[in-house]
Structure formats: structure tokens, C-alpha cells
Give the backbone structure.
Amino acid sequence: MYPTLSYQLMGILFRGHRKLGNSYQEKYYQRAIESEFKKGKLSYQREYQVELTYNDEKIGKYFLDFIVENKIALETKTVPFIKEEYIRQVLAYLDAAKLKLGIVANFRTNRLTYKRLINPRIKV
């Protein structure tokens, strides 16, 4: 799914982890990622607001860390490991934002860990 964009995005994530290591707060990785997006001339939205609806009624909102090229949701974490709850969270975000692909990237581990998630409810 989106092979060229995915490859470019993963390169940014690995580069950020390699340069910064694994001991900073999430916000610093997000700033580094944003810098790379600008450098690579990728369109993105940071803290993308998604409305949560129930029976066509708005009941809340939440924010995705990044939407890249209006195609991929990117959630960054600085946790010991990627838990199932983070995966469920991103799948819910994908559904609400009507996106097909999401990536959870964890910068706390010795090597960048990540999970690519496909939203089964959206057809491309």
C-alpha cells in the first residue's frame, strides 16, 4: 500500500531514531519528523483533528500525530513496546479519518519498532 510514500516515510522514521537515539520525549521525535517532512517536501498535517460521531452526532474529537500526503496516519510513541491497545487506537483513528494505512512508530526501543496497519473497512 502506497509503496513509494511508505518507503520514504519509513526512511524518515529510521533516520530520526538513528540520529536521536531512544531516550527523548515523544514531542522531540515529532519535531524531528516534521523537520524531515519539510526537508523532503512532503505534505502533512500535525495534530490532525478527527471528529468522533455516534448516530450522526458529534460526541468527541481526538488528534492524530500526523497525516502524511492525506494517505497515511502516523502515530508516534515512546514506550517500552507497542501494546495491542495502541494498535486498536490507530485502527479506530483510521476508521474515523477514513484512511486505509496507519503506522505506529515506537522510538523508545534500541531499534525503531513499528507496526503497519491496514484499515479493512476502507477500499482503495
The chain is about 35% helix and 35% strand. Helices lie at 3-20, 26-39, 84-97. The chain has a mean pLDDT of 94. Strands lie at 44-54, 57-68, 72-77, 101-106, 113-118.
